[in-house]
Amino acid sequence: KNQVEQSPQSLIILEGKNCTLQCNYTVSPFSNLRWYKQDTGRGPVSLTIMTFSENTKSNGRYTATLDADTKQSSLHITASQLSDSASYICVVSVQSGGFKTIFGAGTRLFVKA
Amino acid sequence: KAGVTQTPRYLIKTRGQQVTLSCSPISGHRSVSWYQQTPGQGLQFLFEYFSETQRNKGNFPGRFSGRQFSNSRSEMNVSTLELGDSALYLCASSPREVSNSPLHFGNGTRLTVT
To answer: Is the pLDDT at A2 greater than 80, yes or no?
Structure first.
């Protein structure tokens, strides 16, 4: 069964600290993996998109890694800011007899001053 | 460049009614996809349209339908509303089919069914 699991479910960190969010998937055949940031009451905003051959991609203070062998991805946030408080959603795409998108449940990040 | 626009922003309907949601993609984007987001189920894919044709469909009942017009604007319709249809409905556009390009989301329509 195609699944995307994210951990932790929620996380509280102090402003200025780093953190890492995890995404494990059992999707096959893998097409690409995306990380999105969703502020409360807003639509998700794309942070990174990685294909099978890419193992790291950065977007400012956000760095995503992908290990296609272990089917794991992580999103590392450096020097967190209050504005990083949001939900972070991992999305994996499958290309098999049509295209499917499978969403993780998200990690809710709270950055405290 | 204007972002993805969804209307209305909020909507309250009664069980059994039907509702139509609208999505205007980013200019030049030909793919529009729709998603349902609830606290319990998270984000779930409804369907994708590309050049007025439905390309992919999620696992939702036939009460959920959509269409795309020649100007790429899209509408989603839900008939015979149920309480469980209360959710944030998100629309996303992309220049190419969803599988190959990043999605640009609107801020959604919050539907409440009473």
So the answer is: no
Q: Which of B90, B102, B106 sits opposite A46 (nearest CB)?
A: B102
Looking at per-residue pLDDT, the higher value among B77 and B2 belongs to B77
Whether the CB of A70 is below 8 Å from some CB of chain B: the reply is no
* Residue B20 in this model has a pLDDT that exceeds 90: yes
Alpha-carbon B82 to chain mean position = 17
DSSP letters spanning B71-106: TS-EEEEE-S--GGG-EEEEEEEESS-GGGS--EE-
A98: Cα separation from own chain's centroid = 23
pLDDT of residue A30: 83
Chain B residues closer than 8 Å to A99 by CB: 48, 55-56, 97-99
Amino acid at B109: T
**pLDDT at residue B101, rounded to an integer:** 74
Q: Check residue B99 and give its pLDDT.
A: 62
Alpha helix stretches (DSSP H) within A1-113: none
Q: How many residues does chain B have?
A: 114
Task: Kindly list the distances between the CA atom of residue B13 and the CA atoms of B81, B85, B86, B104, in Å, as whole numbers in the listed order.
Answer: 8, 10, 9, 27
